Amino acid sequence: MELSSTMNKFWLTCFLSISLLSATALSSCQSQPTTSTPGETTAETTTTASPTEKRAIKVNPSWLLQGDNAPITLAREKGYFDEQGLDVTIERGFGSADTLAKVAAGQFEIGFGDMYSMIEFNAKNPNDPLVAVAAPYNKSPFSIVALKKSGITDPEGLAGKKLGAPAGDAPRKLWPVLAQEVGVDANSVEWITMEPKLRETFLLKGDVDAVSGFATSIIPSLVKGGAKLEDMEVFLYTDNGLDLYGNAIIVKRSFLEENPEVVKGFLNAYFKGLQDTLKDPNAGLASVMAAGDSLMDENAEKLRLQIALEDLYITPEVEKNGLGSVDTARLEKTIEQVSKGLGVAVPKLEDVFDDSYLPPASERELPPAGERQSLS
Fold first, then answer.
1. Which long-range contacts (CB under 8 A, 24 or more apart) does 288-292 make?
2. Residue environment code for 107-130, b if the CB has 16+ CB neighbours within 10 A, otherwise e
């Protein structure tokens, strides 16, 4: 199995613990910024409200509450949202596509989702545009995974095969883009749709030739099902011409314009939570477990958080630009790749990502390595 060098190092050191993961936890499934000045706040949205005047907002993490959601739960636990006058409720998601639709419909004020899928959503729903306001996941774990016994040794070998994924799977949505990059006819594959908890089972039983999803979700589930690392072929999108950002914090454009202080307050609190998680991931994990239900498996969530810490949150780009920001050239390139691959007009960067609501760079710096504890 071939992974990026960072991921490869990580998998070799942590997968001995995978056999401890519960089947229940493993079946879970599993972006030039503008310079506009946010509008004036109103009495309703002020961030200096007293506790009795806190603004209630609902947040959708795109899937089940998992280990890498620690920045949200830790920020809530430490009162960072309270300090911003926000009463935050976290409700599970059902995939990035579902999250985008529900944020646009006003069912959630804040969503964590794929901003590249958002490009297509906005093209199809111009009256309810969404926009990403932060990119906490600097690297995407999007992947397609096959078993070596299938004979598929590279992405080109997926042509004419059966691929499986849940309907709302973001990597599945971006398959046409990956196919274009690797020279495969996107329409040559047959997609089989299944419930998320059955995805890896379909692959192990041979009902599909490969599955798409987050590598951080698929690989542990396959190991739990009896497969070995050496049995797998993992094709990361980031290793095959798509240097994508991971899930972004997404809001409805109209909500952003009407409630700038709510969004700024949420981001201020979230990035304090992220910095605290990076400094003390054990506290972050404990906050997730405390916020979750009895079905959550601590070993599974620890593994997911560790992968995020190793390969998604911390990169050379983050070391340079700080948490939540983007590299303009990188984002512009991937916006163009995705738009052309999906057959939609290439949007302006400011219609996809607006960094003007982020905390100042000095308040979202990556904590020094010496201050970052290990997850134990």
1. 288/65, 288/66, 288/67, 288/69, 288/70, 288/73, 290/73, 290/77, 291/65, 291/73, 291/76, 291/77, 291/90, 292/65
2. ebbbbbbbbbbbbbbbeeeeebbb
Going from the C-alpha of 308 to that of each of 41, 63, 128, 295, the distances in angstroms are: 34, 15, 31, 21
Q: Do domains 5-29+141-239 and 51-138+245-371 have the same CATH topology?
A: yes
C-alpha to C-alpha distance for 351 and 209, rounded to whole angstroms: 37
Distance of CA 199 to the CA centre of its chain: 19
What is the layout of strands, in order, in the sheet containing 142-147? 190-193, 162-165, 210-214, 142-147, 232-236
Residue 214 phi/psi, 5-degree rounding, is -75, 130
Residue-level pLDDT at 52: 65
Instruction: Please state, in angstroms and rounded to a whole number, the distance separating the CA atoms of residues 366 and 200.
Output: 35
Q: What is the CATH number of domain 51-138+245-371?
A: 3.40.190.10
| pLDDT score at 296 | 86
pLDDT at 368: 95
Write out residues in the chain with pLDDT < 50, as ranges: 1-2, 5-6, 9-51
Question: What's the Rg (C-alpha) of the chain?
Answer: 20
Q: Which amino acid, 192?
A: I
Measured CA to CA in angstroms, residue 62 lies from 37, 84, 270, 299, 374 at distances of 29, 23, 16, 21, 26
Token readout for 78 is: 């430490």
Domain ranges of the chain: 5-29+141-239, 51-138+245-371
Q: What is the pLDDT of residue 7?
A: 52
